[in-house]
Amino acid sequence: MDDLDTQASGDAAVRHDASEPGGKPSFAMTDGGGADPTHQHLFHLAGAAPSRFDGGDLRGAVADNWSVLKGQQGSVYLARLAPGGVREPHWHPSAWEMNFVVSGQVRWSLVGPGGTGDAFEGKAGDLVFAPQGHFHYFENTSDTEDLVVLIVFNTSVAEPDDDIGLVESLSAIPPDVLGALFGVPADTFKAVPKNRDRVVIASKRKESANG
Fold first, then answer.
1. Taking every annotated instance into account, which residue ranges of this chain make up the domain Cupin type-1 (predicted)?
2. 20: closest CA among 82, 73, 108, 91?
3. Are 142 and 105 in contact (CB under 8 A)?
4. What phi and psi, each to the nearest 5 degrees, are found at residue 46?
5. Measured between alpha carbons, how far apart are the two ends of the chain, in Å?
6. Which residues, in sequence order, are bridge partners of residue 136?
7. Threshold 0.85, pTM exceeds
């Protein structure tokens, strides 16, 4: 596999172009992605329809769109983070997560039970494991290059059905409770928007532009 820059889907080429710094993420591709209509064990992941977010995009193969995975307790996602992209801090209640850095530079942070934590930087070719239920996130540390990560879960359900994000979690907690927990005045948290939507992949560059 040519590091996902160019892949073949039938006779058509799937082309991956890095986003312009600060620009809207894009993943140019041809038709024909997803489950292969002829071979049930083949899935064209790089050409599958993506879910797009401010800081990148996400495409996956799960039981809902690849029937061979039903009952197999397995799924895979391809995440692309543009420069400045951040995967929303989150955890998975019922699955562990194996991450392979296909291309780019990445910074990881994980928090587990008992106050255990780990933070480090990685590069193409590295493998990162997030145990089931551990709080974690990662971000693109390059100013010019996209970050591409292949993510494998030991569940066949779609990622949104086994993902609890930081934004949704904080939105459910009143400012006075957050203030008590952090030991600061409740007013500190009154400016936090009550956004209960999933963020998934945010962009620090969008935040800088708005500031």
1. 43-190
2. 82
3. yes
4. -65, -20
5. 40
6. 90, 110
7. no
Please identify which residue in the block is written with the tokens 């895979």: 76
- Contact at 8 Å (CB) between 124 and 145? no
**Domain spans of the chain?**
6-163
CB count within 10 Å of CB 117 equals 12
Which pLDDT score, from 0 to 100, does residue 207 have? 59
From the options 3.30.300.30, 2.60.40.10, 3.40.50.1820, 2.60.120.10, give the CATH code of 6-163. 2.60.120.10
User: Do residues 157 and 63 lie in contact, with contact meaning Cβ atoms separated by under 8 Å?
Assistant: yes
> For position 177, what pLDDT does the model report?
95
Judge whether 122 and 64 are in contact, CB under 8 Å. no
Q: What is the pLDDT of residue 32?
A: 60
Q: Label residue 187 exposed, middle or buried (CB < 10 Å: 0-12, 13-18, 19+).
A: exposed
Average pLDDT by stretches of 10, the chain with 211 residues: 39 38 39 85 94 94 94 96 96 96 97 92 97 96 96 92 90 92 93 80 76 53
Give whole-number Cα distances, 156 to 32, 60, 161, in Å.
Answer: 22, 11, 10
Q: Which of 204, 198, 98, 200 is nearest to 149 (CA)?
A: 98
Distance, CA of 20 to chain centre: 19
Half-sphere exposure (Cβ direction) of 33: Cα atoms closer than 13 Å = 19
